[in-house]
Amino acid sequence: MSQKKIFLILIAVSTVSLLLHHGGHLNLTLESFWLGCPSSTASSTTLGRSGPSAKHTSVAFLKTHKTASSTVQNILLRFAERNNLTVALPITTCDHQFCYPRPFSAHFVHPHTTPPDIITNHLRFSRTELRRLMPNNTIYITILREPGAMFESLFTYFNHHCLSFKRVPNGSLETFLEHPWSYYRPEEKDSMYARNTLTFDLGGDKDRPASEALAYAKRFAAEMERVFSLVMISEYFDESLVLLRRLLSWDLNDVLYVSLNMRTADSKSSLSSKSIAKIRAWNAVDSVLYDYFNASLWRQLRALGLACVEREVQLLRQSRDRLVRSCFGGHLPPLRSAAHITNNQLRPWQPSSKVEIVGYDLPVNMTQKGHVPPRDECLKMIMPEVQYTRLLLHSESLRYRKRFPLRSSQLTSRGVGHTRAHKESLAPSLNPQPSETMARSTKGSLRLSQ
Ligand SMILES: *[C@@H]1O[C@H](CO)[C@@H](O)[C@H](O)[C@H]1NC(C)=O
Ligand SMILES: *[C@@H]1O[C@H](CO)[C@@H](O)[C@H](O)[C@H]1NC(C)=O
Ligand SMILES: *[C@@H]1O[C@H](CO)[C@@H](O)[C@H](O)[C@H]1NC(C)=O
Ligand SMILES: *[C@@H]1O[C@H](CO)[C@@H](O)[C@H](O)[C@H]1NC(C)=O
Ligand SMILES: *[C@@H]1O[C@H](CO)[C@@H](O)[C@H](O)[C@H]1NC(C)=O
Ligand SMILES: *[C@@H]1O[C@H](CO)[C@@H](O)[C@H](O)[C@H]1NC(C)=O
């Protein structure tokens, strides 16, 4: 790299950090100038916003399973809070998902969280129902992951929940892949975790007969492309964020994140190319979808200019490191397996003791004297979705009651989504809660991602 280039990048970085530190909003045009990227305003004029630099605030993110979607969700939730937006949240009987795997219905949305700007909790996609619920300028986004890695992740994560996996002797993925039909029952509960999970989440047919699967998958991919303005790809997460940020006209500091809901390295297993081929054959529709949207992502990245994308990815990582330093003094809090995290607000849900999900723990003494406790925005960045959803429902309900005192008392007397159990669940705090609370609230259907 020439000295001149390095110099320009240095200037860009220091300018951006100056702007960030002063809390000013990055001016897209100015930023594009420094990044040497084409201006993104031209592509967004069709969205009907008030001005070229207004941030887009109506977003439907279809949260898929085991795809890094919890991290995207966390970005969206924090954006919503910062901008006083309303996030559609599930009624309590739906748990923290919108009654997944049932197809989404607007009836699953808690009345205190309407009309929404953003929706991001797990749901099975239904275009019609979402259109009924969301503003008509809503931008639809989702994320896909390479089918081999994704299926391995599903197999491990849901090993003790999904009957199709439970039947496999010794919990061996190879054994399952030898004769999937010996273990898989299409109509069974939780079967959607065992075949074409992405297709299912998108509202498609996971069990198309092999003879039609290919044609169906192509049709389905084209249909999804008309609905979703951006399909992110987990393998190119930061690159996908560059596109997301431009699509929504958001600032760089709106998309900073730390990875959430990961497994420890030793609960992942590496796959042979033979296994990957079998996984792709078994999940044929998902595989077509993935290849289709991965190609589409790279077409968009090339159109933007790969050098520009690369520079923005670097900027994103530097800004994130800076935020983490300012939040936690130096580096991220230690990653611990969920079972060892003392702060319940930060403990991710674990599907079984055999899968080590890791989360971030704050050492107790970090919140004691002599240490500035991490700011709220910092805690939220490492907060798992179940706890974050509960906090948001609480604050949105308060806001709703303030805004519509009469309407909310009517709702209460009619009992719409507002049962006694629901009231109990609306008592969150940042203090550690007894672990039974956690255990009770996580029973039932499955949750979380990656
Ligand atoms: C840049 O931002 C400033 C205010 O922050 C605004 O007045 C100006 O119009 C913006 N420039 C462009 C070209 O959008
Ligand atoms: C959000 O609401 C709070 C309290 O009503 C207000 O102080 C703040 O300025 C609002 N922020 C935005 C971005 O609208
Ligand atoms: C969006 O909805 C508003 C009112 O809700 C309506 O006036 C407008 O025409 C709609 N726009 C489109 C493109 O349907
Ligand atoms: C299961 O594992 C045991 C011990 O590792 C082995 O002896 C047995 O053959 C395995 N069963 C199958 C069906 O692979
Ligand atoms: C995604 O597409 C790019 C560009 O075509 C290709 O280089 C890459 O190998 C693909 N990634 C995967 C995981 O298939
Ligand atoms: C916080 O507590 C841990 C373990 O209890 C200890 O190792 C560490 O030194 C303490 N840190 C500070 C700053 O007191």
From TrEMBL:
One of its GO terms (cellular component) is Golgi membrane. Keywords: Glycoprotein, Golgi apparatus, Membrane, Signal, Signal-anchor, Transferase, Transmembrane, Transmembrane helix. It is a single-pass type II membrane protein. Belongs to the galactose-3-O-sulfotransferase family. Gene3D superfamilies: P-loop containing nucleotide triphosphate hydrolases. It comes from Cirrhinus molitorella. This is Galactose-3-O-sulfotransferase 3. GO terms for biological process: glycolipid biosynthetic process. Its main location: Golgi.
